Amino acid sequence: MATSNTPAASLSPFLIAESRKSAEHPSMEAQGLLSRLIHAVIGSVSNVGEIFERLLAIGPSQQVYILGQLFSRALGRETVVNDREFPFERFMNVLAILPRDVSDKFASQLIASLWKDLEHPTRYWPGLPFRSADGSNNSHIYPHIGASSTSYARSVVSTFQHTRSELPDPRALFRDLMQRPAFKPFEPHPTGINSLLFCLAGLITHDLFRSDSANPAINLTTHYADLSPLYGVNQEEQSQVRTFKQGLVHPDTFADPRLQFQLPGIVAMTILFSRNHNYIAQQLLSNAVNIAENHRFTHVDGQNSPQVSSQRTDELVFQTARLINCACYANLILHEYLRTILGISTESEFTLNPLMTPPSADPTSGNVVSVEFGYIYRWHSAISKADAQWLDDYPIAKKYMDLKRRTQSASEQQEGDKANIFADILEDFGYPRKEFELGPVCIGIHRNSETRAFENSDLIQILQASMENVASRMGAQKVPAALEEVEVQGIRAARKVGLCTLNELRRFFHLKEYKSYEEMVAGPGITADPAVVSALERHYGPDGIDRVELYPGVVVEATKTDGLSLPYTSSRAILSDAVNLLRNDRFYSDGLNPHDLTMWGYDYANNPSDKAATHGSVFHKIVSNALPEWAAVIGDPTRADELLRSPFRGPLAKVTALKRAESDNGDELKQQDEPNNEKRKKKHRVDTPSKITPSTRINML
151: which DSSP letter? Predict the structure, then answer.
């Protein structure tokens, strides 16, 4: 007999009691309830009275079952069925006594429900458990979606009509609207965000965007957050970073040659993950982990089965270590990067996690990054004062653009010719070919010729300085002059792919379109700069707000005052991008589980040593394993620990947060902060990203 703790259980005696009152005229109230339930499940029927009578003729337990099914479907919620008390066959017997037209409708709903029990298309395919080198097969349904050397997507199709000759000169746009004037004082980031966050942003940008010089609509890297700058974008690049022994990669290696022309902080962040990979690989082959995993990396099926080949062990360990390393990468993005962007307090444990399971998750579509986001993520305006000085001391941007031009002209030549061009340019920075053979370069520091790795102390100094250097306020006229060639080329490439206007992108995201230049460059706490407004009028016309291109528009518009203080349009767009980037990747949406990552790997990538103090981030653990001398080099254990617990908030962040809590007046806050900022800049001043003065760097080279 059924239990009586369900709506249907209490309804059954009610139906029986009502039927006893009038066998010929059943209760209209009971029939009405039954009619509403049936209507909610299969639609309207005309013979409710007949159905009612037939239900009364069956046993109470069967009444409870059929009515329970009606209730659960009408309420639209899943129910747990006790198949000992209510076997499926009982439902079939109930359907058999109902009028044919009604039973057919119920049967149709049942078949639809049974079909929906399994996903279409199926999302879990255990036959392809690892990431491919080129990003293909992330989606089983569309295997080439998101692979390297495929086209970007386009989010917005521009309808704005113009000719190239009508558009402003890119160099004039840069100098008037984007360039950081030498005569203006440096403006620190309003919430104290440091340079390290933008170093991680640089790594993510290189992970997702690598436009073909000949055709900027083609993305040469994968369209997934899969650490391709470290692991490569195809099998050839991946083979160059692997030792093919025990799943390891070469010491402090990375595959993307572009990183050698980036700020040292970006290279240092990449090397952290390079070292993290090798740490993970070593742990997977340790007795503790391998035995716990039934010797999955060394034997066919358990300890007593035959051993696999060393090549098979290397492949299994490498691919599994990559999955775990990428899971650590995703953890850092979720628990540090996104939280900082959104301005979530360090005291809160809340995280906007795109991998939370909503009703209709579907990673089978794969991911294709949008061409618009390749420009939205250009955050050169946030480069700190120290990093801007470093760019002046080392003209890497100019050399990099020269490299792109020369390698493009050599596209029909042998790969060896391209390598020679690359080596020649690096020699200009004091790196002879012999040293280049030790591994990729980080301009400003050198590898140990015996270990082929960088010195821990050098990497620690780079990371510490990036943590202590406050980034720049973003917005108009904030991009360092040293990046002129990079930005000019960016504007030209945007036009070549037909990028939309700023207002068209705002309309796409349901944001209010700008009606004037003043509205575009002003916001709460930010007044419109007359010089910027005048420059916009000069380049796009007095009434040309709808002509303002997405790039440089997203650089010039006003910024928010909280969180990362991004330009308004960018701050909205990147949230959609972040959610889709992670949710469209099956290795994140489905693959973060103990089977694929191993029990140890799952714990390592998700559980920090002190969750309460690090709000779920494993960055503290990664740095401690990769750089065990961290505290010793920093010199102050308390300070060393503090830097790792809040890696993206500089020395001004806490003071700024306190003052914002005390006052809502932005102008008053700015006046209060300025004298204190100067004192702290003197106290924590670091002239270069690695605490090595330009002259010392030159001597080192």
Answer: E
Taking only the tens place, the pLDDT of each residue in 514-559 is 999 999 999 998 999 999 999 999 999 999 999 999 999 999 999 9
Specify the pLDDT at position 76: 47
What is residue 177's DSSP assignment? I
- Predicted TM-score (pTM) of the model is 0.83
For residue 188, the cross-strand partners are 472
CA distances from 695 to 431, 586, 683, 699, 700 (A): 17, 48, 21, 6, 9
Q: Provide the 10 A C-beta neighbour count for residue 626.
A: 21
Does position 686 have pLDDT exceeding 80, yes or no?
A: no
Residue type, 661: A
More confident residue, 215 or 349: 215
Does the pLDDT value for residue 403 go beyond 80? no
367: its two tokens: 């991911």
Q: What pLDDT does 64 receive?
A: 53
Q: What is the largest CA-CA distance in the chain?
A: 106
Tokens of 453: 């790795």
The pLDDT confidence band at residue 687, using thresholds 50, 70 and 90, is: very low
Phi and psi torsions of 526, nearest 5°: -130, 120
Residues involved in catalysis: 377
pLDDT in tens, 458-500: 999 999 999 999 999 999 999 999 999 999 999 999 999 999 9
Query: Looking up tokens 């209490």, which residue turns up?
Result: 10
For 320-389, the three-class secondary structure string (H helix, E strand, C coil) is: HHHHHHHHHHHHHHHHHHHHHHCCCCCCCCCCCCCCCCCCCCCHHHCCCCECCHHHHCCCHHHCCHHHHH
Residue 121 preceded by cis peptide, ω within 30 = yes
Whether the CA torsion 231, 232, 236, 241 is positive or negative: it is negative
Radius of gyration of the chain (CA): 31
CA dihedral of residues 328, 334, 340, 341 (deg, nearest 10)? 130
Q: Under a CB-based contact definition with an 8 Å cutoff, are residues 322 and 277 in contact?
A: yes
Query: Using CA atoms, how far apart are residues 610 and 601, in angstroms rounded to an integer?
Result: 17
Which of 658-679 are b and which e, b meaning 16 or more Cβ less than 10 Å from the residue's Cβ? ebbeeeeeeeebeebbeeebee
Residue 378: which residues within 8 A CB-CB, separation 6 or more?
205, 487, 490, 551, 554, 555
pLDDT tens-place string over residues 75-95: 444 556 666 655 567 667 666
**Which of 38, 43, 40, 72 shows the shortest CA–CA distance to 54?**
38
Cβ–Cβ < 8 Å for 284, 321: yes
3 state SS of 549: strand
Contacts by residues 514-517 (CB-CB < 8 Å, ≥ 24 positions apart): 514/545, 514/548, 514/557, 515/545, 516/545, 517/545
Q: Are 168 and 539 contacting, i.e. CB atoms less than 8 angstroms apart?
A: yes
Q: How far apart are CA 219 and CA 213, in angstroms?
A: 10
